[in-house]
Amino acid sequence: MNHTKGAQSIGFAESPFLVSSGSVVGKKESEGPLGKKFDMISKDDLFGEETWEAAEGVMQKKACGLALNKASMQPEQVRFLFGGDLLRQGIATSMGVEALQIPMFGLFGACSTSGEALALAAMSVAAGYGDYMLAVTSSHFGSAEKEFRFPLGYANQRPLSATWTVTGSGAFLVGKKKSHVRISGVTIGKIVDYGLKDSQNMGACMAPAACDTIVQNLEDFGRQESDYDRIITGDLGYVGQSILFDLIRKKGRDIKDNHMDCGMVIFDQKTQNTNAGGSGCGCAATTLSAYILPKLESGEWKRILFVPTGALMSTVSFNEGESVPGIAHGIVLEHC
């Protein structure tokens, strides 16, 4: 049987496997430190389409295709698809996965959506609701700037605390077919709101949620920080990481020696002018697929805690002066 652990976690008696994955990115991401590790790169960030939103949908379709092809599977073999993006009504996802004709759950967890999708996919497989599930998410610099900040033609100046939305999509096939990576447990995050209202400092908005989920995971599973080779957050960047360290120390924990943030490794801060680092649904998802999973598959890392982080804001809430709550979901990934 599967077991609830502590207040917010689930441990799987028979762990579902992360069978395969696919990563698709744009030009700027290909020029970063991980550039050669992604499965597919487009030098045209419109991906041959006329709008940023349609381009994002194309990324999701291609990422799903890559994950399925690597496992030699067809869409009809997948029971459910869990997908989401940053845009209103999840339009990039609906346009992207329509052609696959897989029964779909549309999700929104902001930049934490890859964690939410993986958690639900793993829970569904472990519960016996299907042998295979797809989890997919994406973000696009152009579509995110247009919806949440300023159209690109405005050429606004970005503060040093701002992160750069990753143009990318990551898709993951979760199922019973054995692989070298299994999902042994999940910790579902709560909404944490410290009252911050600066949408240009999302690292600060998300760090409290990351702290809450990481500490809860350690408590629920009875583990120490050193029981993980890496504790990996999704989108905090340089500003958010510093805040996370301070918050966790106040909880009597210290993750400085084994922490990694996807937003800090996907871009070169010195040469790519991304200020505080990377963010967006595609940041954690593509880094997991291209960089983290190979280290687990090879056995270099035995166990990691993957914690994508999301800032739960909208244009409406921002314009009405509301604060920016955060959420983070923890996925325990192990080499096998």
UniProtKB/TrEMBL annotation:
**InterPro entries recorded:** SpoVAD, SpoVAD_sf, Thiolase-like
Q: Which NCBIfam families match?
A: PRK08304.1
The name on file for this protein is Stage V sporulation protein AD
